[in-house]
């Protein structure tokens, strides 16, 4: 049986570990709350911008924040240079987003024409026909971000469409030998050309972030409770 002389006065190392764990868990909870607030602000901004009339291309390019803006311009698809964005899921099915550059008076804009189902075999990419004449495009502007965790495997090739793992505008510019404007048009679902378009501006809703925040704070509280219970048991053992 342990006695007073065998037990240190206070478990400093355990206290330190618990303190570090609680700080980390609370920080994660606060981060999730901040993410939820950011998502709420953006969703409000999207709803506000939806109520505005479509902007001309030059007006969008002049905005500091080019995301989620209604836009309308005239252009011509470069139908001989299509791209397929891999691993896009819709209604539980795997497919691609079809990306095609469109030439305009102000430069080349990458247009996301929507989702298309992948074929039975991964080595056979889907084929499609697109109109090559000049037309009016309208939809919502988006600004892609490059995920550092995604390793791009696309290489220069004469075989089109080219498969992409992420939307990297600088990389795509090298494929088409033309500079792309710093945005992507997500084609409106009502536009007569293209494929399935069910755009989601915010992948994770604010409610999810709040739920994660509650989980992190609950874990922090659980750590403190377990620590207090362990201290009480230790005190009882010392007093025996």
UniProtKB/TrEMBL annotation:
Pfam families the UniProt entry points to: SURF1
Keyword hit for Membrane: yes
Keyword Transmembrane helix: yes
Localization per record: Cell membrane; Membrane
Transmembrane annotation, as ranges: 12-33, 210-230
Principal subcellular localisation of the protein: membrane
Stretch forming the signal peptide: none
Keywords: Cell membrane, Membrane, Transmembrane, Transmembrane helix
Topological category with respect to the lipid bilayer: Multi-pass membrane protein
GO annotations of cellular component type: plasma membrane
PANTHER family recorded: SURFEIT LOCUS PROTEIN, SURFEIT LOCUS PROTEIN 1
Family per record: Belongs to the SURF1 family.
Protein name as annotated: SURF1-like protein
Species per Swiss-Prot/TrEMBL record: Aliiglaciecola lipolytica E3
Lineage of the species this protein comes from: Bacteria, Pseudomonadati, Pseudomonadota, Gammaproteobacteria, Alteromonadales
């Amino acid at each position: 049986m342990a006695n007073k002389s065998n037990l240190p006065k206070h478990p400093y190392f355990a206290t330190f570990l618990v303190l570090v764990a609680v700080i980390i868990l609370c920080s994660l909870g606060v981060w999730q709350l901040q993410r939820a607030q950011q998502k709420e602000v953006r969703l409000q901004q999207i709803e506000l911008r939806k109520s505005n009339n479509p902007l001309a291309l030059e007006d969008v390019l002049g905005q500091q924040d080019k995301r989620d803006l209604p836009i309308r311009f005239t252009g011509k698809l470069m139908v001989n240079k299509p791209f397929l964005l891999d691993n896009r899921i819709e209604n539980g099915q795997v497919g691609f987003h079809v990306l095609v550059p469109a030439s305009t008076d102000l430069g080349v804009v990458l247009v996301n024409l929507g989702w298309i189902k992948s074929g039975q075999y991964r080595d056979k990419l889907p084929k499609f026909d697109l109109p090559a004449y000049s037309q009016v495009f309208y939809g919502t502007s988006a600004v892609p971000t490059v995920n550092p965790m995604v390793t791009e495997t696309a290489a220069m090739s004469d075989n089109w469409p080219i498969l992409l793992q992420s939307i990297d505008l600088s990389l795509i510019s090298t494929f088409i030998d033309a500079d792309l404007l710093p945005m992507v048009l997500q084609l409106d679902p009502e536009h007569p050309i293209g494929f399935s378009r069910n755009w989601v501006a915010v992948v994770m809703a604010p409610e999810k972030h709040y739920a994660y925040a509650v989980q992190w704070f609950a874990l922090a509280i659980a750590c403190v409770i377990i620590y207090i219970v362990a201290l009480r048991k230790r005190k009882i053992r010392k007093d025996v």
